[in-house]
UniProtKB/TrEMBL annotation, chains A, B:
Native organism: Halapricum desulfuricans
One GO cellular component, as annotated: cytoplasm
CDD domains reported for this sequence: HAM1
Protein name, UniProt field: Inosine/xanthosine triphosphate pyrophosphatase,all-alpha NTP-PPase family
Keyword Signal: no
Gene3D superfamilies: 3.90.950.10
Top-level lineage group: Archaea
Stored InterPro entries: ITPase-like_fam (IPR029001), RdgB/HAM1 (IPR002637)
NCBIfam families in alphabetical order: PRK14821.1, RdgB/HAM1 family non-canonical purine NTP pyrophosphatase
Family that this chain belongs to: Belongs to the HAM1 NTPase family.
PANTHER family: INOSINE TRIPHOSPHATE PYROPHOSPHATASE, INOSINE TRIPHOSPHATE PYROPHOSPHATASE/HAM1 PROTEIN
């Protein structure tokens, strides 16, 4: 059975809805390495989780990548949210000419111990960093605008329809279910 | 022989000058984990390096911890320097009431595979984040003021006399050489 390494059971249900297969939640505190690349962090975690559970696993990692800041906060988005805070991230971007940014999720799948046992799948949604608006969502949603509204101004269904995480898992599901 | 895990041979000479023992440079690309704690990052690296070389090892990790930003950029100081840049870090701190910050270094020593085979030693220097001044040093030195001057305005000897890294290695040397 496919093991999804996450503490969030809502994510497990989302992925199950995309797949024709059963998905089991595997709560495992894998090592998150430091890297500017989500791919490297998720792949390292998937290898470690595979060694632990001995069954095919998926691990996901996400971040907000601001163009004018060379991708910051990127893989460290949660740490920066908890320290700097999203209001200050907005103030950091405000004076820049380019407010472009992308939310990205990488899903890493691992089913063995060989070098080539890991595959990664990326979902991405482009937008702009703006002054905080909206009460919904979480994390950077209030300062991320896509198609005229921030993610915090969309209801969950609208947001999921365009979301980076949904797209990454759709790509994974497409590959996983190919005959 | 004590193995110092670093790519910087100047650091090796500095530590050798503090110790009565020979120190060997061990170039090894250990895994840096994500953690808000320098101790956890250095300790994890030291365990991994010990498993690789089989001799006592030291690993050091440093960062600038800004009080008003809950310790940011902390363990991610190098990443933030390369993306956000120190000029923008100053702009982030400028509107805050409290400009206090500390440079910190943690040295981790490991000589075995047991849980208690790692010891850590911390050096810290307190100061303030200021607008960039001075041409010396590297990294955050131009925006870190201690005793009226930025680290980039001090000559190397003055800076080393108060530096967090020197203090951490002194503490380590004192413990390492005790009879």
């Amino acid at each position: 059975m496919l093991q999804f390494v996450t503490g969030n059971d809502e994510k497990v249900r989302e992925v199950e809805a995309l797949l024709d297969a059963d998905v089991s939640q595997f709560e495992f505190d894998y090592t998150e390495i430091q890297s500017p690349q989500l791919e490297a962090i998720a792949a390292h975690g998937a290898r470690e989780a595979y060694r632990e559970v001995g069954e095919p696993v998926i691990v996901d990692d996400s971040g907000l990548f601001v163009d004018a800041l060379e991708g910051f906060p990127g893989p460290y988005s949660a740490y920066v949210e908890n320290t700097v805070g999203i209001e200050r991230v907005w103030r950091l971007v405000e004076p820049e000419a380019d407010h472009g940014a992308a939310f990205r999720t990488v899903v890493a799948y691992c089913d063995g111990t060989d070098e080539d046992s890991v595959r990664t799948f990326e979902g991405r949604v482009a937008g702009e960093v703006v002054a905080p608006r909206g009460d919904g969502g979480f994390g950077y949603d209030p300062i991320f605008e896509h198609d005229g509204r921030t993610f915090a101004e969309m209801d969950p269904g609208e947001k999921n329809a365009v979301s980076h995480r949904g797209r990454a898992f759709e790509k994974f599901a497409e590959w996983y279910e190919q005959p």
